[in-house]
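Here's what a typical entry looks like (PF03932 family protein CutC):
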Amino acid sequence: MPFTLEICAGSVASCIAAEEGGANRIELCDNLLEGGTTPSYGTIALAREKVKIDLYPIIRPRGGDFLYSDLEFEVMKRDIEQSKLLGCNGVVIGILLPDGRVDKQRCKILVDLAWPMGVTFHRAFDMTDNPFEALEDIISIGCERILTSGAHNTALEGASLLKELVERANDRIAIMAGSGVRANNIAQLITATGITEYHTSAKGYEESGMTYRNPNVSMGGIPGVPEYGISATQKKEVTLIREIGEKTLLS
């Protein structure tokens, strides 16, 4: 099967880098440090103008858990409608019930609303109480793929579950591995799981152009994140992941 690479892009610039690097699809997000939230109308609209590859905005009204209020659910429906009007190829969703099961009723409403766009179920899957039950539920509501790290912090840590999910899915739905996917482990992931579809931000931090920097004020304060660094997908990393992935599948 062909190697498929999806880039989690946090900006229009990252979308362009993803396409130039050879990505097949973009998951467009805001607030990547919160796991991704729905990008603005302007971001989606301009990204759609600038790139030709498949574009899937994430439909997630806030960070945190995946149990949403009625108001948040209404926001999600409006964002799906706008994504469709802007010419997106699909959307990325995920809603859970309080007990950790997939909220099939609400997710089915979103899948039907999104049609004819495609729908990916995101890593809310990794927060479910039973991944095999969740797999069947997500298949039943009509999603085309599941993004998962195998219920661990990284796909490499969850490799054994990822492999079992592929076997149980039996080509009824695509399993896409994500979280911690980089050029230095893509070959290992392919060998360990048999998965051919991967998700990564392929990001790095680019130095800000600011020359004046107030030493007394911090707007970020997140460990490991430079105050004057701009997170962006790196074209070279995208290309390298694709090259290694394709080479591994051919070997």
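The mean pLDDT is 96.

More examples are in the samples folder.
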